[in-house]
Design goal:
383 residues; 15 strands; Trna Endonuclease, Chain: A, domain 1; alpha+beta
């Protein structure tokens, strides 16, 4: 218990190194996390010209918005209720009778009106307005304000849409330009924030809130495997799957006190009878032991071990020999170690985000999860 406590203290005091991640790799994570992998390799000039992620998002959001304005923004329908001289849409009988509108030659109607004041356009409006007030590049801030005025003249209001409105506004497959524009606008509110420190340096929200960047890393890895592992080869990717504790019997309130088990990513191939449970950790892979030297973090091993062993069932053969992978980002550290524990192969792998983007992608592709080398050399190794 003392060793575990000492390890937790070491983790809390570990310095954050997010500012050492090259901007192009932050962009790479963002592309995969947002489902925009098709834009990988583009905007190289904008990446080189941007000093930080906030400036890059602002520059690309301006580019995407200007492109949509040249080709006309996407229209949408807005439900309206109005009193008219002629029928449009459906007649509101109750409203028309209660206000005695028929006598005056008027009718209350409910109809859908074609408008540019859609949730996605309002989100872009709000994002550009937010950027214009926090960018230190005056030319870029002026560019954002110019686009805010252009959107306003087109009929887009400044009301920030709710999350429910954004979720309900589905972007079709052929609307790739809108998908990029909306994803960048979301990044302004979800990732990019002005620094709270004195000075002129800007930083990611992740530099002061690890949770947001951890989610970005987790989602990027999940989408990467979803793109690399093909369904025709038998692979299926399940993000955020919830496990239940195999409680045979217990007191009435035990279920409310047991911790939840929610995995990050699960890869399954029924044809090959393989299941790989992946847990991403946006922290250092090693910690300093109070007895000297470095070691893997106890809590991470316990967590993955619980995922593997608690789900074993005789009616689910893959659960009896499922693999576990702890995936860590790193800066200048390379770790790739494996252990076979009670018929479950557990692997510890780091992805060096300080390397060029092409090497990061190749490292992810070369992770033995994607190849037969992750499997035992023979059936006797596990039995």
């Amino acid at each position: 218990m003392e060793a575990l406590q000492a390890e937790k203290v070491a983790e809390v005091n570990a310095p954050l190194v997010y500012d050492k991640i090259p901007l192009r790799n932050v962009w790479l994570l963002f592309l995969y996390a947002s489902g925009l992998a098709q834009f990988q390799g583009r905007f190289e000039a904008e990446i080189e010209e941007s000093p930080d992620f906030k400036s890059l998002v602002a520059r690309l959001l301006c580019y995407a918005t200007e492109k949509r304005l040249r080709r006309n923004l996407s229209f949408g329908y807005q439900r309206r209720c109005d009193v008219l001289r002629r029928v449009r849409g459906r007649i509101d009988i109750l409203e028309s009778v209660s206000r005695d509108l028929f006598r005056r030659g008027e009718v209350a109607c409910r109809f859908d009106d074609l408008t540019l004041d859609t949730p996605r356009n309002r989100l872009v409006f709000a994002a550009l307005e937010r950027l214009s007030s926090c960018l230190e590049d005056t030319a870029l801030a002026h560019r954002c304000r110019t686009l805010v005025h252009a959107l306003g003249r087109a009929g887009v209001s400044s009301i920030i849409p709710s999350r429910n409105e954004i979720a309900a506004d589905q972007i079709a497959r052929h609307e790739g330009d809108d998908r990029l524009m909306v994803s960048l606008a979301k990044a302004v509110f979800d990732i990019v924030l002005p620094t709270e420190q004195e000075g002129i340096r800007t930083m990611l929200k992740a530099q002061r809130d690890e949770t947001e960047f951890r989610k970005l890393f987790e989602k990027a890895v999940g989408n990467f495997f979803a793109a690399e592992l093909k369904r025709e080869d038998g692979w299926h990717v399940f993000p955020g799957k919830k496990f239940s504790w195999p409680v045979a019997s217990g007191s009435p309130g035990i279920s409310s006190y047991l911790p939840k088990m929610i995995t990050d990513i699960i890869l399954e191939n029924v044809q090959e009878e393989r299941r790989v449970i992946i847990d991403t950790k946006f922290t250092d892979v090693l910690t300093v032991s109070q007895y000297g030297g470095e070691r893997f973090k106890t809590g991470h091993i316990y967590q993955l071990y619980a995922y593997l062993r608690s789900q074993e069932r005789t009616d689910d053969p893959m659960s009896l020999c499922s693999d576990g992978l702890l995936l860590y980002p790193s800066i200048g550290v390379e770790v790739d170690e494996t252990a076979l524990i009670q018929n479950h192969r557990i692997r510890f792998v780091t992805i060096d985000l300080a390397q060029p983007s092409a090497e990061v992608v190749e490292k992810l592709r070369a992770i033995p999860v994607l190849s037969s080398s992750f499997l035992p050399d023979s059936n006797n190794e596990r039995h």
